[in-house]
Amino acid sequence: MHKYLFLFFVALCLISKVLSCDNGMNPYYSTPKQVPVPLSNVTGDELAYHQKYMQAVIDFAKAQQPKALFAASIVHKNGTQIVIGMNMGRAMNDGTQHAEIVVIQKANALYGINNFTDYTLYTTGESCLMCQGAILYSGFSKVVYGTSIKTLYCDKCMSQVPIDSTFLTAYGYGLADGWVRPTIIGGVLSNITDNEVFRNYCPNGTVSIFKIHPLCVVPTNSTNSTSSSDSAASSLTFSVFTLLVFISYLFI
Ligand SMILES: [Zn+2]
């Protein structure tokens, strides 16, 4: 009887160990975390270069009637901006027509481009998981955004799937052998995109289809807090099962 009890706890112990391994998200491979390149690591000349193209996207967004929130462009490495566009979800009655999708499809339709290795995509807001997926499949080597998803969701109460674009990007290795991560530079001209492009939906009384009540950890980074607490819970579970195995062994 005690022997079966012992085997039962061994099985539970192994299961808990499997559940607590890696980051709990990818069962196939341990994935290093990617974070956007901090602006402090971008040199003055390169920063000025990206600011120039981001400013063009901002100007484009502001020139629309009504003003666009999400706008994007694609720029060749020789400095040629080949397309620019905005979210067309409402105009086309198609919720998948985010700005990034619009410009990728436009570049394909106009120039037949289906591999964007030599191109950088600029967007006023960090790409959502749908657009970041399209960006990965399209082979972009660099993405530059203004306002982060975290800011839109946590600070502006704007409807978003709260997943950083770098999270999905970290798993792009499955697309091809020797795959190289696109560089993601966040926060370029965010002082403008945060304050002049995107609206704050948080104030009481604000009515909009975009308004949500964010579930954010304040004031620390919610992602780190969640992962560390998950890890602690997994370790505790493993420890409890290990203790139970030891106790059951004593009764054999
Ligand atoms: Zn999107």
Tell me about this structure.
The chain is α/β, with parallel strands linked by helices and 252 residues long. Helices cover 44% and strands 12% of the residues. The chain has eight helices and five strands, in the order H-H-E-E-H-E-H-E-H-H-E-H-H. It has helices at residues 2-20, 44-63, 99-111, 129-138, 149-155, 165-169, 190-197, 222-250; strands spanning 71-76, 81-86, 119-125, 142-147, 183-186. The chain has a five-stranded mixed sheet with strand order 2-1-3-4-5. The longest helix is centred in the last third of the chain and has 29 residues, at 222-250. It is globular and about 80 Å long. The model is unreliable at 221-235 (pLDDT under 50). The protein binds zinc ion. Zinc ion binds next to helix 4. This is CMP/dCMP-type deaminase domain-containing protein.
Please estimate the helix content.
Answer: 40-55%
**End-to-end separation:** 9 Å
Shape: globular
Order of helices and strands: HHEEHEHEHHEHH
What's the rounded overall pLDDT mean? Answer: 85
Bound molecules: zinc ion
Spatial order of the strands forming the largest sheet? 2-1-3-4-5
Strand composition percent: 5-15%
Largest sheet: 5 strands, mixed
Low-confidence stretches: 221-235
The count of DSSP E runs of length 2 or more, i.e. the number of strands, is: 5
Signal peptide: 1-20
Keywords: Signal
Organism: Dictyostelium firmibasis
GO molecular function, one term: tRNA-specific adenosine-34 deaminase activity
